[in-house]
């Protein structure tokens, strides 16, 4: 299966991003941030965060991780 570049992944719909992560992503860890439960995935050589609204089983957004500080926030949960 062909890898998807981060620039291409960013342009996908929320549902398409979610489906790809379900099929091919590797879950790493979770954390709480503001009013969200965030889940970190490894996907095609980069990292992606899924933001779910606390108290709801609803994904608000999915984004490619841009910096190492974001990854540092997960260290206590790995």
Describe the 3D structure.
With 78 residues, this protein is an alpha+beta fold. It is built from 3 helices and 4 strands, in the order H-H-E-E-E-E-H. Strands 1-2-3-4 form a 4-stranded antiparallel beta sheet. It is globular and about 35 Å long. The model has no long low-confidence stretch (mean pLDDT 93).
Biggest pleated sheet: 4 strands, antiparallel
What structural class do you assign from the helix and strand content?
alpha+beta
Q: Helix share of residues?
A: 25-40%
> What radius of gyration results from the CA coordinates?
12 Å
Overall shape: it is globular
Order of helices and strands: HHEEEEH
Q: How are strands sequenced across the largest beta sheet?
A: 1-2-3-4
Low-confidence stretches: none
The number of distinct β-strands equals: 4
Give the strand content. 35-45%
How many helices?
3
What is the arithmetic mean of pLDDT? 93
The first-to-last residue Cα distance is 28 Å
Helix and strand topology:
Blueprint: H1 6-11, H2 14-24, E1 26-33, E2 36-43, E3 46-53, E4 59-64, H3 68-72
Antiparallel strand pairs: 1-2, 2-3, 3-4
What attributes characterize this protein structure?
single chain; 78 residues; alpha+beta; 3 helices; globular
